[in-house]
Design a protein that fits this description.
- There is one protein chain.
- The chain is mainly alpha-helical and about 130 residues long.
- The chain has a domain of about 90 residues.
- The protein contains five helices and no strands.
- Helix 3 packs across helix 4.
- It is elongated.
Length: about 130
C-alpha cells in the first residue's frame, strides 16, 4: 500500500515540476544567424570538400579568430583586410585542415598570419567572392 502511495506521490511531484517549466520557445533567427549560414553556404559552394568536417560553431570561432588576428596585423601595417579576404583565408584553413588535421590547419593559420605580417596580403587573395 505504501509503495503505491509513494509511486503516486513521485508521479505527482514530477508532474508539478514539469508543469512549472516554461514552454520551449523557438529562438527567432537574427541577422547574424543569416550571415553565418550564408557564409557557410558560400564556403560549400567553393567545392571545398572539407567544410563538412567543421561544426557551425567551429567555423564561427575560426572566422572570429581569423578576423581578430588579421585585423590586429592590418592595423600594424596600416591596411584593411576585407571580410571577403577573411573568408578566402577561412576557406584555405579549412582546406589545410582537411588535407591533414585540424591542428595542422591552425599551424597553417599561424604561418599565414606571420606571412601577412612580413610581406602583406597574398597576391592571390582577392577574396572568396569574385566579380565577373
Amino acid at each position: 500500500m505504501w509503495v503505491i502511495f509513494f509511486i503516486l506521490f513521485v508521479i505527482f511531484c514530477v508532474f508539478m515540476i514539469y508543469s512549472q517549466m516554461p514552454d520551449a520557445v523557438k529562438k527567432e533567427r537574427t541577422l547574424y544567424d543569416e550571415l553565418v549560414d550564408a557564409n557557410i553556404e558560400l564556403l560549400k559552394s567553393t567545392k571545398n570538400p572539407y567544410v563538412g568536417m567543421f561544426a557551425k560553431e567551429e567555423i564561427i570561432n575560426l572566422l572570429k579568430t581569423i578576423s581578430d588576428e588579421f585585423d590586429k596585423v592590418a592595423v600594424e601595417r596600416n591596411e584593411v583586410v576585407s571580410g571577403n579576404q577573411k573568408l578566402f583565408i577561412l576557406n584555405e584553413i579549412i582546406f589545410a585542415s582537411g588535407m591533414k588535421n585540424k591542428e595542422f590547419g591552425i599551424e597553417h593559420l599561424h604561418y599565414e598570419l606571420e606571412r601577412y605580417r612580413k610581406y602583406g596580403m597574398r597576391e592571390d587573395n582577392q577574396g572568396l567572392i569574385r566579380g565577373n
